[in-house]
Amino acid sequence: xxxxxxxxxxxxxxxxxxxxxxxxxxxxxxxxxxxxxxxxxxxxxxxxxxxxxxxxxxxxxxxxxxxxxxxxxxxxxxxxxxxxxxxxxxxxxxxxxxxxxxxxxxxxxxxxxxxxxxxxxxxxxxxxxxxxxxxxxxxxxxxxxxxxxxxxxxxxxxxxxxxxxxxxxxxxxxxxxxxxxxxxxxxxxxxxxxxxxxxxxxxxxxxxxxxxxxxxxxxxxxxxxxxxxxxxxxxxxxxxxxxxxxxxxxxxxxxxxxxxxxxxxxxxxxxxxxxxxxxxxxxxxxxxxxxxxxxxxxxxxxxxxxxxxxxxxxxxxxxxxxxxxxxxxxxxxxxxxxxxxxxxxxxxxxxxxxxxxxxxxxxxxxxxxxxxxxxxxxxxxxxxxxxxxxxxxxxxxxxxxxxxxxxxxxxxxxxxxxxxxxxxxxxxxxxxxxxxxxxxxxxxxxxxxxxxxxxxxxxxxxxxxxxxxxxxxxxxxxxxxxxxxxxxxxxxxxxx
Length: 496
What we know:
alpha/beta, Ribosomal Protein S5, domain 2, Rossmann fold, 2 domains, five-stranded parallel beta sheet, 36% helix, 19% strand
């Protein structure tokens, strides 16, 4: 009767960890090793890694036929996280290890040819899965987990350590996230000179999670303004930090600053592919929109991005989720982010600049300004001009409102909004008709201005949302006429 062993392992399906049972059967026949259960090429290559690691660790290679089954068999298995579990299952089936070492344990790790156990992508996701299943996690000693996830994890440097049972394993190194002061962004709005209107727009965007498009000549400070936005956002809550850490861990990105509560800031180059921006590839990985989850996605020189790449942003902006369908299933990635974009007004960058003459033709200007596309432009709530700062103020070292001050305003507006929703009795997140938010004078003014500007239904709703945020910053229970007028000032110059 063939010897059979089973070890609890896990694999990634997008950002979701999937529980996998690694079954091993050792039977008579020609020596060899087969892997079944929908493995990808990386999992199939584990056959060579497992053989070399076992030999280097002083174990005997079975001179029989070994079959490895990965349950559930209908889910595609990818990556190298199953290496360690496959080796342990073979060693138990060939009676070289005590089967008790796998009780209440989940094994995750890649094997080196010398028998070393190496870290893998998605270790935060695996740690949370082990906690959900009530299991201890066995992984590479070189891995680092944030408390309290590290408390239930055991680390091993070499496969040979299992000869002494679990007593030969050590605790995984507990990573120390940066303190709030260490983790804070170095940028500060106090260093942004002579851009009061743009800073006001950034404050509104932070308080209401609105998208922003900044248009201005080179050197006006658009990039610096964007990099300052995370400094006035409230820190991540523990639940948000857990979500974001999983995504970054799956993508192989560092998680230390996320663990400290710092919101992600992503600024991809304009040459990025559509798959790089929204997710995809083989294996399917989260894109920049998901890495910016609960944070900021900054697209500098947005007209230079590919048109099809930009249009791929429309659905994530609306649904706050990316769904990628492949032959082996559908992958879902969360992407609730703030879009911040910057653009020159024309190809040369000096259209409307009083100190430099624009050298572009009207056709060039039109083609450049329409690269973004109307549907995407309509989904950006705040459009703000960023002129060149005055020379005397830059040389004189003038400072404006600091990030600390603006953060207090943002937090105050968020708290006021929560109080207002509780007072109204309307469940949080449920849309309300614009008329319910406006006072009588503001409603009459808004109707007149909306007709004059030919605003569509989506534009009216978005202007109302911006006006609601402005009212929360001023602690107005109802939107006033002044709030509406300011919100309309951030609409694009074209009609619609």
